[in-house]
Predict the structure.
Amino acid sequence: MTEHLPPGPRGHWLRGNLPRYEADRLGFLRRCQEEYGDFCSFDGNTVVVGDPVAVHEILGKTNAEYLAEGTLFAGGDDLDEAAERAAVWMAARRKGSRGFNRRVATAHAERMIGMLDEQLGRAGARTVDVQPLMARVSGCMVADYCFGGEGSALVETIEAQVAAAIPIMSAARVLPRWMPAARNRRFAAARRRTMAAIGGIVDRRRALPAPEPPRDLLDVLLAARDPELTQHQIEEVLRVTLLASYGVPGTTLAWIVRELSFRPDIQARVQDEATAWDGRDTPPELATLPYTEALVKEILRAYTPTWLMGRTVREEVRVGPWTLAPGRQIMFCPYLIHRDPRWWDEPEKIDPGRWLGEKAPHARHAYFPFGAGPRTCLGTHLGMLQLTLVTSWLARRYSIAVETPGTVPASPAALLSPAGLRASFAVREHEEAGFVSAGGR
Ligand code: HEM
């Protein structure tokens, strides 16, 4: 078959569409869709897909016709080498996914509210930047999930690696990894430190008797049998988990903070559910927080942290009416699909209630904050649990004062975050006693 790419804006003769994209990423993608429809060439190498059914099909064929390896906009990756990396990861992922079980998640849930209290306690009465604060909370949570109490020693190392990865992940012009650019060198050094820290914890834990039941993801990975996971597989599952979830729930929490303070009606309903729970030793069951969970789903719709995703074509494929050659990049924007009036009623309105009806509030495949297909998020259940419980506890225990909540712009970089959101968190008088848990106070 001959390649047949969709049309798209011509752009500058040398720099293509990058300058206009960089000036207003979401606006540019939206305008492309309005002008060219659901399939549009960003440049001669990257195709933007806006049709949710086509996106779902692409995600479903990942590892076969498409690869999740590779970075957005980057062309010329070695496809065989990327497919090899995908196969190694999938073998580790299959075994590692056993560590994402209900028992480990429940034990972790009992500790995570204490982590939120600790971080907010450090902020005291000061007005602080919400995004980094909540990123730290989510970093502490994932480190705890992976390593229990030992995780806290790793939080700053991971934070440094994420900081080194952001300029690479959010850039629209990608430099090959072998290029000795400062940002690539910083990333490589941070990655070496992360791997050394993870390897050290795995070695120490391996030398100890295995606890029953397993307390965290590392315990589960070390206990895997028939066959056992290799050291490399264990370290890969931990590395990918730490990086994939570092900051993603935190970004969502930052948007939730904004929404709770911006919308007293929503805050009141979340508080009602939170205060109906009278246990102080165990976190509430998710089933008792339907409105809070609906708010989390709604925020993940309207402010999807992973606002832009992509795949690399591995074999010649047909995408809608177009034919793409191996090596082409596909890009799709969950943010735009989640706000498209063809698939949603009143998509610009934040309405948790839309999730409380019998029927899904959207057209088929038009909601995918956790991705889909064989590379879907491993922490979907855990992420929902973390976000719902932390939101409930935030609304119950803290009075939040946000500076200018209505004017916070969405900043689409590596993640979609509320740029410049600042707030203070004061403990409500009747909540002074706080939550009592093993990992908390
Ligand atoms: C707000 C919460 C979260 C959101 C919105 C989210 C979203 C995502 C998305 C969109 C992907 C890419 C999926 C794809 O390419 O199809 C992903 C991958 C992943 N997520 Fe999450 N995530 C969240 C929380 C978590 C948590 C709490 C963990 C684990 C502790 C986690 C672990 C992972 C892993 C390991 C992958 C890589 C999967 C692979 O490549 O095979 N995520 N996540």
Residues 59, 68, 93, 142, 145, 240-241, 244-245, 248-249, 252, 300, 305-306, 309, 369-373, 375-379, 382-383, 387 surround protoporphyrin IX containing FE (CB under 6 Å).
